Each structure stands twice: as structure tokens, then as C-alpha cells.
Amino acid sequence: MKKIKDFINKADIRRFRFWLQLFFFVLFIYGGYFAINLGNSIPVFSCGYDKEVGGMCYFLPLQHQLARPLDVLFSVASISVLIGFVTFLLWFIVFNKAWCGYACPLGTMQDWLTGLRKKMGIRFSTYTQPQFDKLKKIKYLMLALVIFAPIGVGMGILGGEWRTAFCEICPGRMITPLFVGDVSQWSLDFSTKTAMILTSLGLIFTGLFVVGSFIKKRFFCFFCPMSAMHYIFSDAALLKLKKDGDKCTKCGDCYNVCDMQIKDIADDVKSTNILRDDCIFCMKCVAACPEDDALHVDILNMKLFTSTKGGFAKRMEMDRLEKKND
Amino acid sequence: MTEHKIETPKERLNRHKAMEASAVLEKIKHDYKEPPRAMEYFYDLYERVHCKHESLHSDKAKVGTMCIQVPSEIIYALDAVPLRLCNGFYTDDEIGSDFLPSKSCPLVKATVGQFVSNNFSDKPDVIISPTTCDQKAKSGAIIESMGFSVYDMEFPRTKESHESREYWRRSVRKFTKDLSENLNTKLSKKKLKESIQKIGYAQHLYHKLNILRKNTASPILGKDMFLVTNAFFFDKIDSWIDAMKKLLEECEEMVEAKVNAASKMSPRIVYTGSPPIFPNLKIPLLIELCDAIIVADETCSSNRMFNDMVSVDEWFINDMIDSIADRYLKGCTCPIFTKNDDRKRRILDLVKDYKADGVVYQAFAGCQVYEMEQRSVLEAMQKAGVPILYIESDYSPSQSGQLTTRIEAFVESLKNRKRRQQ
Ligand code: SF4
Ligand code: SF4
Ligand code: SF4
Ligand code: SF4
Ligand code: SF4
After folding, report:
1. pLDDT score for B2
2. B207 in contact with A at a CB cutoff of 8 Å?
3. Which chain A residue shows the shortest CA-CA distance from B165?
4. CB of B299 sitting under 6 A from ligand 5
5. How many Å lie between the alpha carbon of A218 and the closest alpha carbon of chain B?
6. B378-394: per-residue pLDDT in tens?
7. What is the pLDDT of residues A288-299, one digit of tens each?
8. DSSP assignment of B339-357, as one string?
9. Domains of chain A by range and CATH?
């Protein structure tokens, strides 16, 4: 048992993550070719506009469901709405935000762009703290768009083109289908003025997505409404990111590697549950922490992966001396 | 007839320092239970450098550092050697007294004193003075006025804020650039990565050895650990690593064989406060002469120097430099910072982790920050039910009688407590 634990704690989490992300990418983008269908309540951006999707992003059905007239929405017919929501929750509750760090195709694509940048020897950019504090609120506005635009349609306040307003501007709609050779989403919808504005915003955001995540690690995830939605339910999840503040030296190593610039991960020594709304549960922080047990990932209060001095030294290649340079 | 030579003042000074050093070395070697064989290397090293004034780095550019906040990773990457100037000699302390107020910290006085006498086995080419405590910052200027080249590296006094992080990162970047110009060497990505990993490896070895001290039968006494870590101030890093590896192996065997460096009832002590620096190991030596054992410490001449490690996400020069900067500022528990919370947490964690029976807090008389924080640490320990002894000391060899009595009494009370608990 101790050996297994030791093995996990010393694991090269980068490589593990790379392969797992690739697996989920193929599963979600090309699942249809293998007749895989995980339903349409997936808690990450596995875009429903991709014809071969192996499981669909929950936001597409959610928006359609919410756009029903109110009397229908609050009738027995809504059982299906409820079922969809419960399925979403079930998926989410087991893995928490690790869906973002390990499964979301849109997240994975951003990591690949980061990889490309690194290969080209270009350094990443970061936000300053005040910028960051402002920007992180946008995702809640986005979530409001996801929920209230369709309700507005249902109530007859907004026109039908607002039904899936978020999807219109989501980069997932344009990018994901590309991987199965479908370019049909790359067009402007001239049917109404609103549709035109929304689809052009979509184009702009897609451009921003590509350029942004090339320069800034996980650029899009800062604004992602799915992430905001996750956070609302994350307290109930089984997988947890925990911190033992007594062991933390506030060295900031975890903050340094965090793609989401989460400051609390290093500075907060009071919270035990250290998962924040931006977190993508990539566990890079745990891997980068040099203090035994200061950070750990728990499932049902059992330590699954925990920070260790030995694991740190191994991952940073400090557990042996390459050669003498004297 | 033998030729009669008149001793120059410098020679006389060297003789005094050598006497001071060798008296302490003799004690360390012989007054305690037999140390691990691998300690021989370190005893010998001190003898060579501090008694015989042998130079270790004649072939390299030498960068003197006034405190641990100066990043060694960068200095090594620029093909120079860092030499920590924090000094423990009473002889130098007395000389320095003429240049600083009489109530100043002995460590600072001794450091200045060494420059007054201009007496080094390896003389630094440039001195880096991070503006940490007032006395250090001012003494940098005093040293400069004696004609040495001193570089002020600006250091923030609050470490929680985002501004301080940015400020220090900028300071470190500037330092890197200026030092590289000064030494006329270009910093390469490869070299920097190598030096981060090499220091990381040294830290890794230190941690492994430290973990062995958690055993009820700890294989090594605190006085030897201080010698090992103090050697990192000036030794060739590769030789240090080799010696450390041997020591580690031997200690692992000792743990296996359940060899105890102390005795069964010896109270386990966590040591904190002003840094014990060779040859001023007065307090640690007294503690362990009174049959206690130092199992862990929170001082910048030992644990604090090795504790936090640099972690890099992307191995680009700027990213590495920022990570290095953070490691020196963020994890540091020096009392010069506005708040002392991290330090209290750290001490408590060490007490728990190393199953210590009590804490000894030393403050150098004249070191304001350590004296001031004594209260907050005492309070925190009392709240947690951890016995603590506060000692004020200096470099003079005279007060040891009174100190011994106090330490003995403290150790006795810990022993009684231990007995009652059993
Ligand atoms: S467009 Fe975006 S929100 Fe809509 S289904 Fe695709 S990924 Fe989900
Ligand atoms: S936060 Fe990022 S990884 Fe998570 S669902 Fe949104 S885009 Fe995907
Ligand atoms: S890396 Fe670990 S010890 Fe350092 S700040 Fe983060 S949690 Fe604390
Ligand atoms: S806090 Fe940790 S798990 Fe969350 S995004 Fe940052 S590095 Fe990843
Ligand atoms: S006590 Fe603080 S300022 Fe003084 S040498 Fe140690 S770390 Fe530096």
C-alpha cells in the first residue's frame, strides 16, 4: 500500500495528464464514429455542434430547455429537464472540476496552444492582480447569459435568436467541428440584426480564443461560464482539493505554476478546502508543492494524491545530479 | 639560531581567530558522544578554512552575500561562488564594536569587523547587501565607506502583498543583469537550470537527512547539523554535496541499527531565533551538553536556508528568475518582516512533526527584530502548550555559567514532564 502511494505521489503528473487529455479529446470529438454516446449532460465544453461528438456539452440542451414558455417549463414536461440536470450533477460530483483539467476539449486545446508557444520559446504573459480580479467576474455574466437569455425567450421578452445566445458567441461552436472537417459554423447569420451581432461576436471570440490562449495559459477558462456553474456545486463534489495550512510555508511554488493565477492556493493558510472558482483542478499545484502533505487531492476524505518532498524533487529532476559543472 | 619573526597585526588576528575556532572545534569533536564518521570532512573543512586560512575558491569570482536572501542560483549560474558573510567570530565582533553603536547585533558587528581587519581566506570581489534589517542595511554602507564594492539589493519588508512580490522580482532581475555585467558573463538558460537543479539537489539531500532526525533515535546531534549547514556558506558546492551524501548514507545505516546520538530520555528541542554561526555555536553546544538534543531548527543559518525549493513551470530565463525570486521572499520566515505569523506556524509545525518536547529561542542582544518577536512566539507556544525558553546571548565566551544554569533547569523540567507523561 505504501509503495503504491509512493508511486502515485512521485508520478510524473504532466505526462499522465497529457495522455488522459488526449484520450478524452478523442472520446469527445470523435466518439460518434465509434458509436459512443455519453449523453447530453457533460459538464464541460464538448460541443454539441460537432456532429460526431461522443457526449454533449450541457449548455446546449440547458438553453433549449430553459427557452420553453414558462407554463411548460414548470409542468410535468420538465421531468426531462430535471433528469438532464441530475445527470449533469452526477457527472460533475464525482470528478469535480477535474473535468476542466483533464477532460474538457476546449481546455485541452488551450493547453496544446500553450505547448506550441513553449516549443517556440516564447514566454507566457500574466495578468496583474487588479486586472485579474476584474476579469474573473466576467464568467458570472456569461453564466447569466446562458440562463437568462433563453428564459427571456420563453417569456417572450427576447427574440428567438437569443435562444442559444451563449452558443452563438462560444468559441467551441466554431473550433470543435473543425476537427471533424466541418466548417459550416464559420459563417455569419444575417437573418436578423441580433443574430448578426451575436455570430460576429462569436467570430471575434474565436479569434481571441486562439490568440489569447497562445499568449496566456488557459486564457478562455477565466471567462468560462461552465467554470462558474461548477463552482456553485463544487462543495458537494467527492473529489476535493485540500490544504493543510500548518504545513504550508507560503513559498508560492504552487501559485507560480498555477495556470489560473490562483493566489489563495499559496497565501490562504486557513481554508482546508482550497478549490476556488477559477480552478481547473489540474493538480499542478500539488505536484509543485515541496512540503509534505501541504496540498492534497482527496476522494471521500481519502488522500489520493499528495504533495511530498520526494515527489517534488523527482519531478523537478532534483533528486539526482546530472553532471558536475565545476 | 632560529630566525625570530615579529608577528604582524594581521597575523596576530589570524592567530586569535584560529584559536577561537579550534577551541570550539575541539569541543564539538570530543565533548559529545561519538559523531558519525562522515563528520570528519566537515571538522577538517573548518580547520582548513578557519584555522589554517586556506583559500577554497582562488580560481573563481567571489560574491559575498550579507544574508540568505541573495539567490545563490543566479550567482552559480554566472560562474561565480556565493560566500555568505554572516560572521560568528568574537574576535571580529570586538573589532567591529568600534564602528557600530555598542548595542548593535554581534553578528553585524562581527561582519563589519572582518572587513575592518580585511582578513579573509577567500576575499569577496563584490558584496551584495539585501536591505533586510536596519543594521545590515546600514552596515553595508559602512563597509562600502571602507573601500569595498557593495551592491544594495532592495528587499521589501512586507511579504504578503502583491506589490512586494513584484518589487522583489524586479530587484532580482536587476541584480541578475547588474551582476552579469559586473562579472562580464552572460547568463544562459542552460546554466541557470543546472544551478537551480544543483542547489535543489543539495536541498534534497539536506531534507533527507533531516527526515532521519524525526526518529526517536536520531542519528545526529544538532551541533553537527549546524556545522554541516554552516559549511554551505563557503564550501565548494560539489564537495559539500559529496560529503553530504556520505553523511546521509552513514546516518541511514545508523537509523537502521537504531543508534541514538543522544540518550533515551534526552528532551527533543526545536531551536529558533538568531542564527548560530560557527564558531559561535554557544547555545546549541550548551543545550546538547545538558543532555538534550536539537532535532530541528528554524534559523537562517540552517533550516530556513534550505527549506523552500525553487519550482519552475516553464524553463525560460525570466520565468526561472521570477521563481527564484519568489522562493527567497515568499517562504522566508525572517522576523524582519512586518508579520511573524508564518514563523510561528513553522515552529509549531516543526514541534509537531519532530515530536519535540520544547523550544529554545535565542536572540542576539542588540538584534531588535528577534528580541521583539520573542513575545509573539512565546505567546503562540504557551497557547499550544509547548514549553519554551528564551535566551538572550552575545558572542562573548564569558556568560556561559549563567546560561548553563538556565538551560540545565529548562532541560530538567522537560525531562520531568516527559517522565510524568510516560
Ligand atoms: S457552443 Fe459552446 S456552450 Fe454551446 S454546445 Fe458548443 S461548447 Fe457548449
Ligand atoms: S473552464 Fe476551461 S476547461 Fe473548464 S469547461 Fe470551461 S473551457 Fe473547459
Ligand atoms: S507550494 Fe506548498 S508550501 Fe508552498 S505555498 Fe503552496 S501549498 Fe504552501
Ligand atoms: S489551484 Fe491548483 S489545481 Fe487549481 S488551477 Fe491552480 S494549479 Fe490547477
Ligand atoms: S536573520 Fe534575517 S536578515 Fe538576518 S541574516 Fe538571517 S535571514 Fe538575513
Report:
1. 59
2. yes
3. A252
4. no
5. 14
6. 999 999 999 999 999 99
7. 999 999 999 999
8. --HHHHHHHHHHHHHTT-S
9. 13-231 (no CATH), 238-325 (3.30.70)
Single-letter residue type at A114: T
| CB contact residues (below 8 A), chain B span 281-320, against chain A | 307-314, 316, 318-319
Which of B65, B66, B69, B152 has the most ligand 5 atoms within 8 A of CB, as the residue to mutate? B69
The per-residue b/e assignment along A266-276, b for 16 or more CB within 10 angstroms, e otherwise, is: bbbbeeeebbb
569570482: which residue's cell? B61
Edge to edge, the sheet with strand B80-84 lists: B80-84, B61-65, B126-130, B150-153
Residue of B133, B328, B340 best suited for mutating to test ligand 5, as the one with most atoms within 8 Å of CB: B133
Express each pLDDT in A65-96 by its tens digit: 998 887 777 777 778 889 999 999 999 999 99
CA A220–ligand 2 middle distance (angstroms) = 7
Count Cβ–Cβ pairs < 8 Å, chain A vs chain B.
Answer: 105
**How many Å apart are CA A174 and CA A279, to the nearest integer?**
25
Quickly count: other Cβ atoms within 10 Å of residue A3's Cβ.
7
| Residue reference for cell 546530472 | A322
pLDDT for position B3: 65
Contact B214, A292 (CB under 8 A): no
Residue A190 Cα, ligand 1 centroid: separation in angstroms? 20
pTM to 2 decimal places = 0.91
ipTM: 0.88
Q: What is the mean pLDDT of chain A?
A: 91
- What share of chain B in percent tops pLDDT 70? 99
